[in-house]
Structure formats: C-alpha cells, structure tokens
Amino acid sequence: PIKRWSLNDFDIGKNLGKGRFGSVYLAREKRSRFVFSLKIMSKLHFSTPETMQQLQREIEIQSHLKHPNIVRLYGYFYDDKRVYAILEYVPNGDLAREMQKFRFTTKRSATYVYQLSSSLSYCHQRNVIHRDINPSNALIGLRGELKVADFGCAVHSPASKRTAVWGTLAYLAPEMTSMDFMHDFRCDIWSLGAVAFEMITGFTPFKVTSEKETLDRIQACEVDMGPVKCLKAAEFLKRVISANFQANNLKEPCLLQRDYTQRIRADEVPNDPWVAENAEKSLTQCRAALDDWEAAKKCGQQN
Fold first, then answer.
1. Which has the closest alpha carbon to 60: 50, 75, 46?
2. Does 18 count as an annotated binding residue?
3. Which of 26, 34, 165, 176 is deepest in the core (most CB within 10 A)?
4. What is the C-alpha to C-alpha distance for residues 267 and 107, in angstroms, rounded to an integer?
5. Secondary structure of 76-128 in the HEC alphabet?
C-alpha cells in the first residue's frame, strides 16, 4: 500500500524562505533521516478552481521531471488547512543572491549557461514550459551546480499556444507582456538569454527604474551590452544572446530575438564554442546524496 504522508513524519527545522503562496522549511523525514525542503502552503491561496488547478499542474509537472539541474519534487500531502510539498533540499541559495555578491568568472558563467540550457532543453522535449526563468528561481546545489526551481507558472505545451501573462517582468519575453498575444516554449529561450546576459555582464539587459520603461525596452529589444572584459564572452553575447549588437540585424537567430520564430533552441546553446570551451560539464552529472531517495528507502511507497 502507498504510504499516506503527514506532518508527523517530519522533524521541522529552520525557515528557508518565503514564496508567493507559503514558506519553505528545512525538514528531516524521521524514518530515513533524509533532509528535504518542505514547502507549506495555506489552502486559502487555492480557494478557486483556477488556483487549485494551477497547484495541481505544478505538482504534476515537477514530480515527473528528473534532471540533475532541476529541483526534484518527491511528493506531497495535505491536511485541513495546508498543502505540503516535499522538495529536494538545495543548500546554497539562489543565483540572484550569488550575483549580488560578486561577478562570476568565465568558467562559472559558462557552466551555469550550460546547465540552464540543459534543463530547459529537457523540459521542452517533454512539452513543459517553465514561464518564469529568472535568477531567483535558479538555486545553487551542494556541489555548486545550478538547479531550476518553482514550477508554479509552468504548463504543458501542446500544439495550441497559451494566452496569459506570467513570469518576472525583467526576464519576460516580448510576447509575454501582452495579454492577448499567444506564446509557447520559446518564451523560456528569451528568459535564458536575459539570465545569461546578467551572469556575464553583471546587470540585467532591460530592467530600468520604471515598469513602463522596462516594458518599452523589452518590446523594442533595446540592449546595451556595456564593457565586457573577456573578449570571447563579448563575442558570445553578440553571437548567441543578442544579434542586435551586430549591425542591428533583427532577423539573426539568437536568444534575445524579438521575433520568437527566430530564437535558437536551448539545446543549441551548449554547442557554442565559448560555452563548450569554458563550461564544467561534469557538474551536470552531480547528484546530491538526498537525490537517491528511491534507492535509499523508497519512502512514500512503503509502510
């Protein structure tokens, strides 16, 4: 028989952070002694059919994604007042915090570009659109590897496209800033370009003081690269991230391409010479000890 989880199965530790719908705590499963992140969400946030469907979709999507650069969702349970999600514990904060502390080395930037591209390629091959790729949703694992988190905005991407605004403004694709414009998995490609740009340059490509100005710059695809010390990184920016640097060639395939039909695929990015030369690919194979959940105890499937 399948085990029914309850809060009594866990020792709850410190608060790890707060999100849109609840808080995340360090937790240890009592039988296996495995450490997890336990996301605790009030049912009050899911009082409508739409919000409940969104939660069910997030759980269904993330529970089926098994990739070294994606945070695992191992299971969930609920009681009268709350919903609990059992997540992989990722101990070293997020990309946003790391970028605030210091500029990344070439190797680290290239490695994270490689890993983020790899995770998105995996999702897109399985018809999953994340729709909120940004530095706060990229966590840093035990061995320094990047792991994509928070699939609260994610959807499956069948042939029909979606019509809704989701995501974080500074990283939104142009088609995502309009309520009536359809979008598909290529909105993630734009966000990948915006995050990669920030890792290399130290600043976001479009965000300015006001929301309106940011929207205007995104719609116009106005990117100011500024000085980049590494010549090869600068060439990567021009070649792969934004071809607008090259004589304003608006039809050149790249990541930050306003015409989404001209964006390159996520699986093309790791093959770029700058990424291939500098990325530490072995990190994508790292799995934290807690990732051996099924092999260690098969918790959640046995009494």
1. 75
2. no
3. 176
4. 19
5. EEECCCEEEEEEECCCCCEHHHHHHHCCCCHHHHHHHHHHHHHHHHHHHHCCE
Over 70: is that where the pLDDT of 287 sits? no
State how far the Cα of 51 lies from the Cα of 217, in Å rounded to an integer.
31
User: Taking the model in full, what pTM does it have?
Assistant: 0.87
Instruction: State the pLDDT confidence band at 228, using cuts at 50, 70 and 90.
Output: confident
- On whether 20 is known to bind a ligand per the annotation, the reply is yes
Please give the positions annotated as active site. 132
One domain for residues 265 and 178:
yes
39 annotated ligand-binding residue: yes
Q: Are residues 106 and 82 in the same domain?
A: no
Residue 48 sits in a domain of what CATH number? 3.30.200.20
| Same domain membership, residue 166 and residue 234 | yes
Q: Name the domain count of the chain.
A: 2
